[in-house]
Each structure stands twice: as structure tokens, then as C-alpha cells.
Amino acid sequence: MTAFFICIILIGIFIVCIALIWMVIERKNARDYRLDLDERRFELQQVIEDADQLLGELNQFSDYIVNRMEEKQNDMEFVIKNIDERLDLFDQIKDSANAFPDARANKPAVSENTEIEKEVLLEFVPISKGKIIPFDVKKREVENLRKTGMDSTEIAKLLNMGKGEIELISRMSK
Questions:
Q1: What whole-number distance in Å separates Cα of residue 68 and Cα of residue 145?
Q2: What DSSP line would sit under 37-102, residue for residue?
Q3: At what angle do helices 163-173 and 152-159 cross, to 10 degrees?
Q4: How many C-beta neighbours within 10 Å does residue 72 have?
Q5: Residue 108: phi, psi to the nearest 5?
Q6: What is the pLDDT of residue 107?
Q7: 154 with 126: CB under 8 angstroms?
Q8: Backbone torsions φ then ψ of 127, nearest 5 degrees
Q9: Is the pTM of this model over 0.85?
Q10: Angstrom distance (rounded) from CA 37 to CA 65
Q11: What is d(CA 138, CA 122) in angstroms, rounded to the nearest whole number?
Q12: Do residues 146 and 157 touch, judged by C-beta distance below 8 A?
């Protein structure tokens, strides 16, 4: 019987040792979880700092874009103002031509405003695909296509010009 009790005591000691080893392993794993939490907290702080830096850069970039857009808008307003002035000049030239119709009949095709007309027309000469097409030719083409019933989008595609340019030429010819 003593052998039986010794075996039971040895089995009990063996189970206690396994339990102790298991507790040590579990305690070690618990420490790893705490270390894991610290590492995750540090990583989260890094992500937050990076996000703040990214937001700052995005704000700077958006400010740059807004400033550039305002500059472009000012440039466009300046160009539109110049175009309006030139349209007024065209109207003045047209009115002066209509005011003296007999004077034009006596002179072949040269008027006193030819230099001004050339200067204004040369500023409206667009460059498309390496060719310079005079304004008068474009105007005639746009007028002819307009008479056939085409709208400005179709004319723009056909002549490889901008829709706004077509509409401008149409308004000027009226």
C-alpha cells in the first residue's frame, strides 16, 4: 500500500509542477499583452502624428490651389476686360466705316484705320496645329457653317477651335 501512496504523491507532485509551469507561461503571456498594448499605443500615436502632418500639408496645398485659382481668375478678368475693349474698338471701326460709306467707295480697300485694324486682328489670330489662320478666314468659315444650321459645338469640333471662340466670333459678326 505504501507504493500506492507514493505513486499518488508522485502524480500529485507532477500535476502541481505542470500547474506551476502553466501559471508561469500564462503570466509571461499576460506580460506580453501589456507590452503589446504599449506597442500598439505607440503605433497609434505615430499614426495620429502622421495624420496631423498630412492634414497640415493638405491645408497648405489647398491654400496654394486657392491662391492660384484666384490669380487665374484675375488674369481671366483682365483678358475679358481687354477683349471688351477690343470689341468696342471693332464697333468703333465698324461705325466709322458705316458713317462714311462714300469715302470707302472712292478708296480701294485701304482706310485710315488699317494699322489699328491689323493690330487688333493680329491679336485674335489663333494658332492651331502649327498653322496660323487669319481671323477673317475663321470668321467666314464660322458664318458659313452657322448658316447651314450647325451649332457652335459642332463647328468647334469641325474647325478644331474652342466653343467659346466660335460663340465670340458669332456674336462679333452680328
A1: 38
A2: HHHHHHHHHHHHHHHHHHHHHHHHHHHHHHHHHHHHHHHHHHHHHHHHHHHHHHHHHHHHHHH-HH
A3: 110
A4: 10
A5: -60, -80
A6: 46
A7: no
A8: -110, 120
A9: no
A10: 41
A11: 13
A12: no
Contacts 24+ apart (CB under 8 A), 151-156: none
Q: Which three cell numbers stand for residue 75?
A: 488674369
Q: Which amino acid is at 113?
A: N
- pLDDT of the chain along its 174 residues, tens only? 888 889 999 999 999 999 999 998 888 776 666 777 888 899 999 999 999 999 999 999 999 999 999 999 999 999 999 999 999 888 888 888 777 655 444 444 444 445 555 454 444 444 444 455 566 777 888 888 888 888 888 888 888 888 888 888 888 777
Determine the residue type at 34. Answer: R
Instruction: At 106, list the grid cell.
Output: 472712292
The full 3-state SS of 112-151, as one line of letters, equals CCHHHHHHHHHHCCCEECCEECCHHHHHHHHHHHHHCCCC
Return the DSSP state at 65. Answer: H
Q: In residues, how long is the chain?
A: 174
Local structure of residue 90 (DSSP, 8 states): H
Query: 132: which strand partners?
Result: 127
CB atoms within 10 A of CB 33: 9
**Rounded to an integer, what distance in angstroms lies between the CA atom of residue 165 and that of residue 171?**
10
